[in-house]
Design a protein that fits this description.
The complex is a heterodimer of chains A (308) and B (336). By secondary structure, chain A is mostly helical. Helix content of chain A is 69%, strand content 4%. Chain B is of the alpha/beta class. Chain B has a six-stranded mixed beta sheet, sandwiched between helices. Chain B has a five-stranded mixed beta barrel with strand order 9-10-11-18-12. Classes of the chains: A mainly alpha (308), B alpha/beta (336).
Chain lengths: 308, 336
């Protein structure tokens, strides 16, 4: 604050603070508080709002338990509320996305941080960033085309003789969604890990090798423990972004892949039931945060490690 | 071509950038030599990765693993060889005792002081029972007192274990004090390999002479040579000295400051009239900076044994030296 005043004078500092305050208050806090308040009120005709039936309750939150469907896991059939099922699948496939992103990003991050000639690093990073210049919508549609039944991916796999019949990628449950989400969010995994590995003293890798460690042992005992905060940070980021993504599941989803954000969106826009939709949105936020916290506790990662 | 014997403490001494570290990295296997071979215990190391060689390298910054406790650091080499945990723990404790650091097994690296980290690094390298231990200026980060203590410690550990140590340093004092033999390097070339005494007393060329210890240097020409001695003409007078392996007539005459004498009267030979400039008293030594009448800046070091008279500032005196203690040497052996 002192620094700001010294640099820009009182007028400009006041304007900056007011702008930040406006952004924080009007665009973040007020809308969220409004939705939070609404989520506890019933969905009523306009004439009854403020009337005797307009009382606070947790009914909207309990609506996720309505509407049983039959599901099966490992061949065991069971009844489960449809929205709970959607929620659990969203969490599970977001984890799958985070896990696959990790597997893709770790070797690349290691390559970028320790193996590649530093001179060609800017080119490599540029190549990785170019896809980000294209709008997310366009990228999702690009994958929709790539994954199409008569699209280039099937054509390539057929030409290589790897498959005999074309595959309905976007009609195989969550396959399309997972591919799309990986493509969209893999860089959020790559850069935290790259930063973490880059800060590892190369002598440590050489020392381990000199002591006789094979390559996998060097990674398991030296590189991965050092990169753990970066890995955790990337996983949290990719998981949260995936679980909260609406666009990719909407475009690349199949008839059998419902994402929880789609449920929220339908309740907001199709059912126009903002109260229930708000409740679902807060459920997603709170449960995902809880889930991430538990995962971090399990893997002994501190929040301060991630913030680095 | 250089050989270090089994159980020997061998040092490579040279200025930074002379290729010492390159040699070490070639021996440990991080770089392949473009020509020549490296043999350890008689077997050619060509194509062997660092993790296959019977060497252990101690890095300049030690490269201890900060996320492991000390005992896991030390037993890491055993862990990768599939030794079970109880044995590893026991071995780590033994090694900690050997390097005089008992009870540190469960500490973390960040809890240790510089000298203690040093010992852990040595223990970690010894754990894999290497045939050759390679040390890349491991003492350079320590303060003077600790450095001197660790010199003796390293030497003692080497004698106790009987492992061949190859030590890299730019510090001549370190190399001379610890080594059985020293290889002095310059610009990627070995200049001389000999025991420390020989290196200091009989350097083969000007580089070795001036890198190891101080010298008064006179440029000039060899005049007459006979039975290893020669007379040498310089702008500051004509001197007699031992003749090194000088080709032709060009060379330089090297005299160490402690091999010179200052006296009021000229001696029989090798006397230079000087004016005393600056006298600094250093306890065991008195260093006298003087200028010869012909303009050369000279240094003389007198032992403070009670008999030495401290010359007065501006006194006119004669600096002389024994012909057997001075040598006419060629310049450094450079890539030709």
């Amino acid at each position: 604050m002192q620094e700001l005043l010294r640099r820009y004078g009182s007028g400009l500092t006041l304007i900056m603070c007011l702008l930040v305050a406006f952004w924080l208050l009007m665009l973040v806090i007020v809308p969220n508080i409004t939705l939070f308040e609404q989520s506890f009120r019933p969905y009523l005709p306009v004439s009854e709002i403020g009337g005797p039936r307009d009382v606070y309750s947790a009914d909207n939150y309990l609506k996720v338990f309505e509407g049983q469907v039959t599901s099966s896991l490992f061949g065991i059939e069971f009844e489960i509320p449809v929205r709970v099922r959607t929620f659990l699948l969203t969490i599970w496939y977001s984890m799958v996305v985070a896990g696959l992103c990790l597997m893709l990003a770790y070797p690349l991050a290691y390559y970028m941080a320790k193996i590649v000639n530093p001179k060609s690093l800017p080119t490599l990073i540029l190549l990785l960033f170019i896809p980000l210049w294209v709008s997310e919508v366009l990228r999702a549609f690009a994958w929709w085309i790539i994954l199409a039944f008569k699209g280039p991916l099937n054509a390539l796999l057929l030409a290589l003789g790897l498959i005999e019949d074309p595959i309905r990628w976007t009609n195989m449950g969550f396959t399309g969604v997972v591919i799309g989400l990986i493509y969209t969010y893999v860089l959020f995994m790559l850069f935290p890990i790259y930063n973490a590995i880059q800060s590892l003293d190369t002598n440590q890798i050489e020392a381990a090798e000199d002591l006789g460690a094979p390559w996998w042992k060097i990674h398991w005992r030296i590189v991965i423990p050092h990169a753990k905060p970066g890995i955790a940070s990337g996983c949290v980021m990719v998981f949260m972004l995936s679980a909260g993504s609406l666009l990719v599941p909407s475009i690349l989803g199949s008839t059998t892949s419902q994402w929880f954000t789609q449920t929220i969106n339908e309740t907001f826009n199709d059912a126009l039931d903002w109260n229930t939709a708000s409740a679902y949105a807060f459920l997603l936020l709170i449960l995902c945060t809880l889930f991430v916290s538990v995962a971090m506790w399990l893997f002994r990662v501190k929040l301060s490690d991630i913030a680095k | 071509m250089s050989r270090s014997g089994r159980g020997e403490f061998f040092s490579f001494l040279g200025p930074s950038g002379c290729g010492k570290t390159t040699i070490l990295r070639m021996v440990s296997g991080f770089i392949e030599p473009t020509q020549g071979t490296i043999r350890i215990g008689g077997s050619d190391m060509k194509g062997q990765r660092p993790n296959q060689r019977p060497t252990a390298l101690i890095f300049q910054n030690l490269a201890l693993f900060p996320l492991m406790p000390i005992w896991e650091n030390i037993s890491f080499g055993l862990e990768v060889r599939g030794v079970d945990k109880a044995t590893r723990r026991k071995k780590a404790e033994e090694l900690l005792k050997l390097v005089d650091l008992p009870g540190a097994a469960d500490k973390m690296v960040s809890q240790l002081s510089g000298g203690q980290k040093q010992r852990v690094a040595i223990a970690r390298a010894l754990a894999v029972e290497p045939q050759v231990m390679l040390l890349d200026e491991p003492l350079s980060a320590l303060d003077l007192k600790l450095r001197q203590h660790m010199r003796a410690e390293l030497r003692a550990i080497q004698k106790r274990t009987g492992v061949t140590f190859i030590y890299i340093t730019h510090d001549q004092g370190e190399a001379l004090a610890m080594s059985d033999r020293v290889g002095v390097m310059s610009q990627g070339r070995i200049q001389q390999i000999a025991d420390p005494r020989e290196i200091y007393n009989n350097p083969v060329n000007g580089f070795v002479a001036s890198f190891v210890g101080e010298n008064n240097i006179f440029a000039g020409e060899v005049q007459q040579a006979a039975s290893g001695m020669a007379s040498f003409a310089t702008p500051h007078g004509s001197f007699r000295a031992r003749l090194g392996e000088v080709s032709g007539k060009a060379g330089k005459l090297y005299v160490r400051p402690e091999h010179t004498l200052l006296s009021a009267t000229a001696g029989a030979e090798n006397a230079i009239p000087v004016t005393v400039g600056d006298v600094s008293f250093e306890g065991n030594f008195i260093t006298v900076h003087a200028t010869s009448d012909s303009g050369a800046a000279l240094t003389s070091e007198l032992r403070n044994d009670g008999s030495a008279t401290v010359p007065a500032l501006g006194a006119k005196m004669f600096m002389s030296f024994d012909a057997a203690r001075a040598a006419i040497l060629p310049d450094a052996n450079v890539r030709g």
